[in-house]
Amino acid sequence: MDTQPDLYAQILDYASRANPYPLFDELRKTPVLRTQDGSYVVSTYRDVTALINDPRISASGGAGDSFIALDPPEHDRLRRLATSHFDQSAAIRPKLERIITGLIDQLEGRDQVDIVDDLAYPYPVTVICELLGVPHQDEPRFHPWAEAIITELDPRPGQEDTADRARSEMGEYMSGLIERYRAAPGPGLLSELAADEGMSTESIVATARLLLIAGHETTVNLTANGMLTLLRHPRILDRLRGDPDLAVPLVEELLRYEPPVQLVPGFYVALDDIEVAGTTIPKGARIIYALAAANRDPDRFADPRRFDPDRPHNQHFGFFHGIHYCFGAALARQEVQVALAELARRLENPRLLQDPPPYRQNPTLRGPRHLLVAIDGVR
Description:
The chain is α+β, with helices and mostly antiparallel strands. The chain contains 15 helices and twelve strands. It has helices at about 5-10, 20-25, 45-50, 75-85, 90-105, 115-120, 120-130, 140-150, 165-185, 190-195, 200-230, 235-240, 245-255, 290-295, 330-345; strands spanning about 30-35, 40, 55-60, 110-115, 265-270, 275, 280, 285-290, 345-350, 350, 370-375, 375-379. A hairpin with a 5-residue loop joins strand 1 and strand 2. Helix 9 packs across helix 11.
């Protein structure tokens, strides 16, 4: 049995954050790697696909109390209830365009912008709060909560306690808002869920918290990673400027090439001994999916290190896979498609001021903490 704790530790190390991909390439040489704490990292496209769909894998190790930490049939019941209220794909695009247009308008007169602080952060939190029905004046509370809660997704030791207070504060706030909507219905998803007798207040809070993370933190990273990638590939940026429809396949390639979720840390537990690529994962062991490694597996993707928005059959793991496929995927896709197309169209002569940029600490949700760009103006 292979134990290479140093390789996985290097991936988690902040020193590797700007470019972890050579380490992920190395990781695939040991398709199932046992870490120092006894977890098993799975990294090839074939093996990740097989395990995600294996009924002998349970999500019961997941943090929190949302349906993402449940197995069928209860997972399926709660997810169906939440999804039935969340399918707003036809109505959401005008809202997205209005929000991103307003944020870009605020850049007029400036010669330098921070894509993260000025756009990628405020954009999705405004979107998700509007969808949930959170009063506009309360929106500033949500980003700090999201920042704190995602520390539980950090697989490095010592990160587990930071989320507790934020989860409690957000739960108390959401519970109060849900009760207000039960007494007097209003706009947004929280009010719709509050009227659904199939969901308790606790389930609604957990679903809203999941949506905040899935619909906010991943979108921040995908937008920032997207602009960074486009600025490194100016010909593709020019194509997008002239053809905004390119944003659809371009975002799919970004999800493969620079996925906002690089790892799924040990939420998943083996219910039995499972043989994978010549290694036995013992019953009770935690499983870590190295999605960023699988997304660049040359056995699945031709020339995987090349950014190619015209790539055919791009079945990536950018939003995971199987029954736990990202709840907010449709929203995140549209948010980033709209944002990148508008940024390409309206920013005049954007240039990177720092490459690589400083990155966020979290190795699971990887993206720039700042992305400083010089511009000649705003169209």
